Amino acid sequence: MNILERDPSDPQKQKKEGINPPLKLVLELGPLLVFFFANARGEWLAQKFPALAELGGPIFVATGLFMAATALALIASWLLTRTLPIMPLVSGVVVLIFGALTLYLQDDVFIKMKPTIVNTLFGGVLLGGLFFGKSLLGYVFDSAFSLDAEGWRKLTFRWGLFFLFLALVNEVVWRNCSTDTWVTFKVWGIMPITLLFTFSQMPLIMRHSLEEKTKEEQASK
Prior knowledge:
The chain is mostly helical. The chain is built from 13 helices and no strands.
């Protein structure tokens, strides 16, 4: 049995790994929303559930619940598709490792560094893959777009740089702002920035879309 999601070129990928887009969004964003809510209402949660008070202040309660929500999201993904998506899996492993360090050492620096580590890792992997002639972004977007080789190379390069940009932004924010500001930016700042970047890539996607080229060829006949 293949535990990880299939290679983009595998014809069985879309057949066996489909998941409802709204549900997929919930699984990916749900843990972040739990993190934001728990940090904002940490004291209230600790009063309602005394066991959570043992974790420490609001950021530590949020970290513990973030770890639990991340694990549940991965389990749900596995139950629904019998595979684990690579990028959420990598992010989840880092969450669990750095979250455990945060709780054990009672130092929120570790959970704040998690986005830096994950984004640097993703950016490095994408750009490193290009160095070896591999456009690895297909693992993420192949079910949404069908591009030619040049299109995947360009899109992979741009996303690689964007991930490194996100890592840099996270470092600037957590080192210079309060914990509450960092949590708010992590949940409500990063997502709009990512969506804006994604939409800005649509011209490139349209230029290199295999479907668009097929339509143009059919229209010219």
